[in-house]
Amino acid sequence: MTDATDEPRRTGDGRSRRRFLALGGTAAATALAGCSNILGNGDGGSGDSEGSVSLADFRGSGPLVQQREAPSGTSIEDLPDLDGELTLYLGGGEGGLYLDLIELLEQKYENFTANHRLEPSSDLANTIIEESEAGATQADVFMAVDAGSLGAVANAGATASLPEEALSAVPADFQDEQGRWVGIAGRARAVPYNTNQFSASEIPTNVQQFPETAALQGTMGWAPTYSAFQSFVTAMRLQRGDDETKAWLQSMLDHGISEYNNEFVVSNTVADGTIGAGFANHYYALRVQSGRPDAPIALAFTEGDAGALVNVSGVEILKGTDNSELASNFVRHVLSAEAQEFFATRTFAYPMIPGVAPVGDLPRIDDLQPPDIDLTELADVSGTVDLMREAGVL
After folding, report:
1. What Cα–Cα distance (Å) separates residue 92 from each residue in 99, 349, 358?
2. Which CATH superfamily is domain 45-185+312-361 in?
């Protein structure tokens, strides 16, 4: 995955400085130089034409969200009203938070209703494929928490065209190469580490080095049953092949890594000092810090490998919908400045449009160095699960 210019993302001294994220203290103001602020900060509302919904309703709260400037981009005030009834298949995981966004849109537009079915993304992807093959599509829109599920539906020919306005708002790295799905929120793989046990310089910059790092032996954690971890392993398979990926997994087991149920637990356990470091999506450390401002936890990011994967939650319109105009308008709304501010400040995800900054001191998404892979190829989760079982991880 490369940026639009194919230029190196970081060079010289900035490379080391940006790779590590210290999570202590109150977030500084986020400057959006060169962008016009099209929304108020929520103090006096945003001039809604229907429901009384302002930027403050979309924005989260807490120490990591303080002193943010208003986002810029396309406001929901500049979009056609959402009008009608939409059927939405909503992938699990962060789905509970995404429902809050949908409820805000329903509050904003009195004539808009979003009926939803909430299940794990992979399960819903299989349901959509089965319904499409039977010519009995039940939903208009699929929102999933991982690109692999979106890719499975797209590869089955079960998607319709997305509006160009949505595709043009998001960098090419975070949408399907054929425009069949588009990212709405990003999550970076990261290494949360305990700052009382390690300094930044002790965390390897390449994920392949972790089994060889003596200081990390017996003090790391992962959550192999977690879908985000399995996407990371899928990315490693795409980059390095099955044999090398299996060997890496087995080397980590030999290195004494501990298993946890999910990556929030991994990050909390790092903050507690029970383990010194782990593998997790970036926002779990931020959630720990939001509730425990003095927790000794920081983030490191590897460079150019599967450990630096930036996966996305995304949306696609389903083939066979009779509601394509409303579905297209809905997709544009979840990429509005308000909705992207919601994803950034309530879920601590990476926003997908340049006019909305990530929270706190997170590096900008274009300062990260993710691997050069097509996110749609993350759809091969079953092969990854088989490999992890062979390696003794599952």
Report:
1. 10, 15, 23
2. Periplasmic binding protein-like II (3.40.190.10)
- Amino acid identity of residue 229, one-letter, is F
Q: What is the pLDDT of residues 338-387, one digit of tens each?
A: 999 999 999 999 999 999 999 988 888 888 999 998 898 888 888 999 99
CATH number of 187-309+374-391: 3.40.190.10
Backbone phi and psi for residue 132, each to the nearest 5 degrees, phi listed first: -65, -45
Q: Can you tell me the distance from the alpha carbon of 158 to that of 129, in angstroms, rounded to the nearest whole number?
A: 7
d(Cα 19, Cα 200) in Å, to the nearest integer?
A: 9
> What's this model's pTM, rounded to 2 decimal places?
0.82
Q: At what angle do helices 282-291 and 263-272 cross, to 10 degrees?
A: 50
Cα distance between residue 105 and residue 357, in whole Å: 22
Instruction: Render the burial of 378-391: b for 16+ CB within 10 Å, e for the rest.
Output: bbbbeebbebbeeb
Q: Where are the domains of the chain?
A: 45-185+312-361, 187-309+374-391
